[in-house]
């Protein structure tokens, strides 16, 4: 036999108050309607005793909100390392009493448009449009029909929207400083970005290089060689490192533009009879699972996936609730350095 559904009237009856008073308490309007703390306590006690659950559909019709957020991504939910991004968004939504709907476009622009429109049709209160890797994109037109935010992406054309992205420029500076602080000033090579072979669709590639170049230029340091890669997978790192070793006679350190490239670089260095970090120090980006499994463990500048997801939802909720609206533009999230065992101090004579 089905359990009888508990109603607001049941709560009000047990608390000894009117149904209107109970409704004001549960909607957070007690102080506005000058309802006493004693009445509030009685209503909340009745809710616990009866295990009352408000009807979400009725509440949305009454308040004009659904307490739902849509997150539409390209391939982010199937990328293992990006699970923390979803986790951060879920935590922020749940803590504020919102449900997060997640959909994936698999990189298909038409499907992305359909998914965003489906979220709008289902009356979500706001939409997060997310990308697997940091890049510029053209947001679907229907995105403007709800409070919206870009996650790990920026608009390809000027648009008054908030973008939550990793602070890749400062991340590049962090990687360069890690080598400088260990005494590396000569024989430094780059793997992933180089003349004529830079991933121009990757904002991370451009901004990481910008940060690295800023630090080295300020210190009067020349990069010994830079080898670009069409993609950033281990075999690309292996090939690029072999090429760089032919160009640089005395290699001191490598900055790899992601951990997968670094995995290939480790193997290429071993092929050449060089040890990390005794012969060549290596620093990288992302803090992928590879970073802790290689030997020695890889020092890397971490992508703050959890913080990205959480910040995106929290900023979106400010707009949904009519609080201080975030100014359009990029909100950069700090990328921390994970110090492990791949950088060896190298001291120069005074």
UniProtKB/TrEMBL annotation:
* Record-annotated HTH lacI-type domain positions: 6-63
Keyword list, A-Z: DNA-binding, Repressor, Transcription, Transcription regulation
**What PROSITE patterns does the record point to?**
HTH_LACI_1, HTH_LACI_2
The transmembrane segments are: none
Q: Which CDD domains match?
A: HTH_LacI, PBP1_sucrose_transcription_regulator
Coiled coil location:
none
The record, for SMART domains, names: HTH_LACI
User: Which named protein is this?
Assistant: Transcriptional regulator, LacI family
Species annotation: Acidothermus cellulolyticus (strain ATCC 43068 / DSM 8971 / 11B)
